[in-house]
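Ligand: zinc ion. Inputs:
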Amino acid sequence: MRLVDTHAHLDFPQFDRDRDQVLAALRAERVAVLNVGVDLRSSATSLDLARRHPFVFAACGIHPHDARTFTPDAERELSALLRQGAVAVGECGLDFYRDLSPRDVQIRAFQAQLRLAKRLDLPVVLHERAAWDAFLAVLREERPLRGVVHAFSGDTARAQEIVELGLHLGIGGPLTYPKNEALRQAVKAIPIERVLLETDAPYLPPVPFRGKRNEPQMVRLVAERLAALRGMPEAELAEAAWANACRLLSVEPRF
Ligand SMILES: [Zn+2]
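Predicted complex:
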């Protein structure tokens, strides 16, 4: 069974000790990865990982936490990075939970990255936390867009709004968390062609690995749970999610 983890951060320091072993295990287990940049530096490192591994792809972007670094110079640099083989723009979006950058600054950096994605004809990797109304307002203004709402953890109504915007839902470890019953209900109803599987490694490990470092191969546990919820064979779900990821990102992973 092959899978694509459409959201991981293998460049993060949590993988400094054994990054090569983790990558070798992914190749052996046929798990492809979209490595997602959160600032200019990690975007450049993501591109570097992608150049060295035919099953790793890079998204380049500036996370809402770092929106205050999104200066005109940074935008030029990001645009240059994106032209070096990135397959998506992101992660970008809004995070009003931690509010590490002022909200108006976040909104401007978000809009600018959505426009950049349209100019370069790339999909977007979106982050939203505690900012749903503002997030939706920006997306509606900037549509049409192609992309994925990463770490989706909303209910059926929110899932429906994302589908209506033409976007995909990135489903990860939170699907397995006991409190997320509304999310489990929501994912039963999404059209299968809008489903992507992800980990957000090293964060958000699925049950029973909570508290440990998450790794892209744990995307299997997400696939297993989602298949059970939807009442379909795991292999069929995995293959559908694989095809969705390859189509959205225009990639063909090789192991
Ligand atoms: Zn992330």
